[in-house]
Amino acid sequence: MNATLTAERAELRRSVRRLLEERSPVREARRLTDSAEGWDRGLWSRMAGELGLHGLSLPEEHGGQGFSVDELAVVLEEMGRVLLCAPFLSTVCLAAPAILHAGTDAQRRAFLPGIASGAVTATLAMTEMSGRWDAEGIAAEAVRTGGGWRLDGTKMFVVDGATADLLVVAARRPRSTGPDGVSLFTVGGGAAGVERTPLSTMDTTRRLARVDMRGACAELLGDEGGGWAPLSRTLDEAAVCLAAEMVGGAQRCLEMSVEYAKTRVQFGRPIGSFQAIKHKCADMLVEVETARSAVAHAAWAAASDPAELPVAASMAKAYCSEAYVHAAAETIQIHGGIGFTWEHDAHLYFRRAKSSEVLLGAPSYHRELVARRVGI
Question: For the segment 62-71, what is each residue's pLDDT rounded down to a tens digit?
Fold first, then answer.
């Protein structure tokens, strides 16, 4: 594995950070959480047009840049650093790979260029009332009709599900069981028979929705009954992207903590000179750097060694989830009384950390996956 940050990736990081610091600092996240849509379409267009971020890991023949998850992880880390409010994870890291891995050539040509240009937002609707991320948790039913397919069921915790233009839905034939029964379908966000309800969640910077389907018209994505393999690969790649985003958030928590520890004075000396604070910051640094290494390996596996990706992705997701939650909690403790206030940013990072911890599967779930995947 070559984890060296290339000159191209370093420049990509600088460009993304420059744009996000200009257009989407944390105070912008506060403003957008109170808005109706929850994200800035102007910034979304600039991300797609100026930097080509939406198609970064998509093939050039479908309007993309032809890069890999390696480069995408760099972008997600910078987005996590500022708590970006935008449907990037849902569109670029969930829906687009599902279409790429499961769709036919005609379907890729139909859907991916719009995603790459920023004209279309999309998401993956998989989890249901059980909150499970495995094939057995998919109960939504797909029934073939004379004109195609109709879907019935309820999807929960759909990232950006209330605003997405396109839904990629996991469902199965009635009474079918196991991974072999899972198929993927595309459904228009505003299609008849689709009702979308925003959910009240702990993390206001990332919006989730309930999607009820009652006879919703759908198009089969790829092969019937062949949806689990591409869906599983999509979830692994998305776990790497989410882990990278968590590294960015944890890094920012560390920076805020160290900065405050240098300037906050108690008993005539900076609190950073106290051993207890030193230990907290040192532990955070070790965890952040370890998390970054885990993401680097998983991103490399996604790009260069798909056989190693399932284990690497689950290990990265499990470790980064806990590292981010710990960093955010310690940031609140280091800031003391001010860290518990609504006005300080620490609670925004803690909320994002807790929501990301369970999104795509909690650490315990991914450790169980690792055990299964290595044959334990």
Answer: 999 999 999 9
